[in-house]
User: Fold these one by one.
Assistant:
Number 1:
Amino acid sequence: MRQSILFTKTLKEAPKDEVSKNAQFLIRGGFVDKLFAGVYSILPLGVKVLSHIEHIVREELCRIDAQEVFLPALHPVENYQKTGRDGIDVLFFTEMHDGKRLVLGQSHEEVVTPLLQKYVQSYKDLPKSVFQFQTKFRNELRAKSGIMRGREFRMKDMYSFHETQSDADRYYALVEDAYRKIFDRLALGEATIKTYASGGTFSKYSHEFQTITSSGEDTIYLCESCRVAINKEIMADVNGQCPECGSRALEEKKAIEIANIFKLADRFTNAFSFTYTDQEGKKHPVIMGCYGLGITRTLGAIVEVHHDEKGIIWPESIAPYAAHLVSLCTERADVEAADELYHRLVAQGKDVLYDDRAGLRAGEKFADSDLIGIPKRVIVSPKTLANNTVEVRQRSGGEPEYVSLSAI
Amino acid sequence: MRQSILFTKTLKEAPKDEVSKNAQFLIRGGFVDKLFAGVYSILPLGVKVLSHIEHIVREELCRIDAQEVFLPALHPVENYQKTGRDGIDVLFFTEMHDGKRLVLGQSHEEVVTPLLQKYVQSYKDLPKSVFQFQTKFRNELRAKSGIMRGREFRMKDMYSFHETQSDADRYYALVEDAYRKIFDRLALGEATIKTYASGGTFSKYSHEFQTITSSGEDTIYLCESCRVAINKEIMADVNGQCPECGSRALEEKKAIEIANIFKLADRFTNAFSFTYTDQEGKKHPVIMGCYGLGITRTLGAIVEVHHDEKGIIWPESIAPYAAHLVSLCTERADVEAADELYHRLVAQGKDVLYDDRAGLRAGEKFADSDLIGIPKRVIVSPKTLANNTVEVRQRSGGEPEYVSLSAI
């Protein structure tokens, strides 16, 4: 991609109302733009990063036999009356011309449960697991922390269906394992802590995955030896002790909840009378689990964890481009040599951002490149061309390397 | 993908209220499911097809320097007041807790125009083109024809921004060319006709791309020699003549509008006072074009064009899987041989649907396979295994081929 074609430009200053680092860098770098509080447009560089995040999530979930669907955003309010969730205060409502009331999906239990009910009749049809990447709508009283708590945001939600609670528990553990692999691949593994949280009415605990960062909205208490944490909300319920080792030596941390896993038991299947028939012909309620992973939140969390004072430092696995080719060439022959190098990289199948913009000083180009944060920078200049080389630098620091043009 | 894991099942009968062939086959095959009139869930096989369609569209648009964005679905109503479109009758509205009114996006001029305005100041910043794949919401009085006229549907919309009308016209022709390539790759090229339609207030004509099919909602008049058509709506305006050759020998056809291209001139940029500065420092309104392509509609149109009485016949380019491996094996050694073949194909990177379901007769499996419509069927049975072969059949017909196991 030629940077001269890209419609976004980097901004020197972030909007004053954006206090979190992730929002500041993502807006300044041209990854997202705020339409209004809690609602953001994803710009070309952001689309690239999100697609890489989603690719990783999809791969790991397909490995545990989850199937991708794409469910509607418009839900009949009757489904919420059945589950008793038509009164929750974060719902957006809309209406058809005939007066039929609709809910904008903030979660999809009310759609996925009756959908699976159409296809699952017998124990032979279980277990099943379905997931989607969807826009979610939450009528938040206050939107804050940039893309962290949005009124409209992108999320991966997954729902699993089982004969028994023990089979649901087996799958719950598989999802936890898949999530760990996802966080590792997103370079969030170390900073992301499995956290005990309220299980609601149908389970003692649920589990959140909290990424430790000073700008986090949540407070958690970390047990360093178990590498688990307890959400502040339930500290009284666990008597201030780690639920795994009983230790009281817990450290208070700020964190962002990027994912959660819930045991739903028959909370939603009962509401829809969704049962299956066992081998003896007896009917039982189907047992459910649900598993969220905030895609836009994860984007923000990655920036919170991977940045310095100059900008973002993308992990390789999700960087918008594999390399940032920065040309400092101005003379025609040099520009042509830089163009040729770019075309050669593209022909090799390399996904490269090519800073071919004319009229900018080297310092301006490097500042932009630091802000955008592509992990590998390849500098082509009259000086490097004179030596038949390019200069290669890692965004994370270290000494430059000089690579011969023919070796690229 | 093992078919035994897939949560969907084929249905013998389509719901009675689905009259169009595309809806009948897509529902019976397990590609989509209706939540309520005009609102469908996309199921795993449907997600695969849609992702292939979107991949082709994305590739062709990136070739004409369009940049992918992902814009919000929630729009401030003030933006519609500026363009005077807050009164159009297909809008869904919702409201925040503080009373702020929002529109659910049915098109994105009101969001993309002020977005580009933030980044475009000078002639040097033009031209630009951005596109997205988004869910669109239309408060239709009546939803009909399956996924063809939905209240919620998936669409590719693109917007281009130019210094002059002649530059916008140049890009308009590029998009037309990209669309032709897309339709060819989607096996809709022959059936899809460029159609003159109303240009609205800002242009004499717009152009639609109409796919000829007996179940189409639109009526067009085809000029066979020019391979263009005229939408019935403007037949009086063109005096019943082909606008290209003047012929009156036009044939009436039913068709589905799967895409359209519009010249917007300064209709939307004026509403936002979106100007650019030319080389002499003078300000001019930015000139716009917009280019829609219905993704769920295209899915439906492909099924309308590519089916027989037994089910869908997917074009290879967008088939949910490259091959349908149908096992008729029941004895353990045979089942193991079939499993091994499946694993070998997966290891080769082949995306295969494997009908490993036990307890079904061959006729039932073939009927399902005909309905689902994967272009290549590979049958493995005790008989073929005895000869160390598989039987390969094309969904479109013709004689079976026998291929040795070792050659696969």
Note: Chain A touches chain B through 53 residues (CB under 8 Å).
Number 2:
Amino acid sequence: MRSINENSVGFVETKFYSCCEPPNELILSSGEKLGPITIAYETYGTLNKDKSNAILIFHALTGDAHAAGFHKGDNKPGWWDNMIGPNKAFDTEKYFIICSNVIGSCKGSTGPSSIDPKTKKPYGLSFPIVTINDMVATQKKLIDHLGIKKLLSTAGGSMGGMQALSWSVLFPEYLDSAIIIATNTIHTPQQIAFHEVARQAIKADPDWQNGDYYGKSIPARGLAVARMMGHITYMSDKSMQEKFGRRLQNKEKLGYDFSSDFEIENYLKHRGDSFVQRFDANSWLYLSKALDYFDLSEGKKLSDVFSRSLLKFLVISFTSDWLYPPYQTKQIVKALKVNEIDVSNIEIDASYGHDSFLVETEDQSRLIEHFLKRVTKEQ
Amino acid sequence: MRSINENSVGFVETKFYSCCEPPNELILSSGEKLGPITIAYETYGTLNKDKSNAILIFHALTGDAHAAGFHKGDNKPGWWDNMIGPNKAFDTEKYFIICSNVIGSCKGSTGPSSIDPKTKKPYGLSFPIVTINDMVATQKKLIDHLGIKKLLSTAGGSMGGMQALSWSVLFPEYLDSAIIIATNTIHTPQQIAFHEVARQAIKADPDWQNGDYYGKSIPARGLAVARMMGHITYMSDKSMQEKFGRRLQNKEKLGYDFSSDFEIENYLKHRGDSFVQRFDANSWLYLSKALDYFDLSEGKKLSDVFSRSLLKFLVISFTSDWLYPPYQTKQIVKALKVNEIDVSNIEIDASYGHDSFLVETEDQSRLIEHFLKRVTKEQ
């Protein structure tokens, strides 16, 4: 268990920012309006006098604003604690780090489990579809609220990488650089397919009740199946071999029954069941749909969307990531290079699959540390 | 639609063979007994006088005995019709082809949906766990019944390849050769993981009723989810790109709702829903478990299990098959070569993923045709 030491940001608290009160609702990509909106966020480190050391971090599908340090009474640190803190990749002695929960989620920001002020009941499926661009639009409001005119950098993996890409296209004049990790500019049919099956698993649960289950039984079985399947795609063939092999669960020999014989089976079930305690099924539906809708260039040529960019990019992928394989980040790099944009691209040799962006610390830290130093110098 | 022409075996009928009447039940790998057992099978071509031209074909998880030709009143041919027939890879002018449905299935052979003679009710979960070796043991009884002393060859892909491997180890003196396609000698944790999630999806369906659903509502939602997930693993990133891309379903633009926007979503749902009409959920549980239990060398060195083999092997894999990737068949080839066994190994360049063994006809046909000619000559 990680603990509070000289490399930890220590105890932290989630803060909340509210905006978009009617009649100033946010106009979403779909044309629908959403407001009021609450954004949960955390910050680590200190914003310098000229507000030039801010870095915005983006979480992945089931993440939250709690990226580093500890909440009081909780012995589990934030989701990227190995990367954020004094002398870590995102060095809080130097930089002011911000991480906010995306809209559509269930971790403090407005989402389908929030109370709709019009009906005084949870939105459920009446919550509008949100896109990656919509998430980014609310983050821009938060950054304005914090008085930051320009971000030193932005960074995220997976869905977080999509937000970093979206920022670089929607608000290029508001940032100096972007760190894009294990992601894609456009969701492929295979990526959509995995999500659609998970959505079908949730919808197949009779407790889902067309999204209207708040205060009743939650669709725990469907959501657990969705999470189990997701988990397979986050690991790799090799990492499963290394971590589990064909070891049996509390048994000396095959049981010849349907109780779980292999450790991998029990592990997945455990991950599915524990996920249900911490995440809302409707939020899973909304956020997976936001990923599936993601198409950075919206049908145009990818190289065209970067044409006016003066940003510096660091683009990272992992050899064993088969959910967002390295060929996809190579397409980003190609589109940037065509525009003579400053881009460093590294494919890190790691066996953890897509999860590498969360657990591979050594190479990522060195790359990000050097990149941020250079960006700071050339500001 | 394929039709009856000079390259078709024409109309065929499924036949049935019964064995293992108590007290002569089959002793299964688990130690449990099963009997009586019915085996559904089909044959194509003519057994020659010295019964030396017989080839046993094995189907994959959801396949059946109907490998080629047409059943009367049905306009869909058998599952490997593109490979079996006059002048095809398995040339019925030369060879006598046999294909039987595995035990545990629901396509005519004894399985969990069969009536247990003791209770006069469907077995359900009281059906014993069967293994690939158990399937092969019943096939051996069928071959004995047909009076065939030695098979010219055996062939199968995926679960069919495992049966071919099992035959080559259990009964090497009863065959001349084996054609092993897109398979593995031991199920990996990733392969087990995909199956376990699908099993959990079936079990999560309230209609599953611990397997006791016959004559009532079937667990259609759970089985559809299981099939959808399986289907993703049978295709490839590239084949999904080629077949669907991000084309929308009956729409000109994104719907911003949870109805299926993309064709791939609708396709998977359709495949899931239609599968439910033709396959039994309990059989899916049993057969997936048989695959997960498969370990050809049973903890021993793989090269040791082939040591006494005089067979000839043709081992085929496909570049885009990520469910049973080529590195796994290479391990078979290595174990065979260590024993100086006659093996040809080809990795076919095809984009269809694991499904390649069913749809890639050209290269497979040529390879199999030549291999069978050589084996016949050297008999």
Note: Chain A touches chain B through 58 residues (CB under 8 Å).
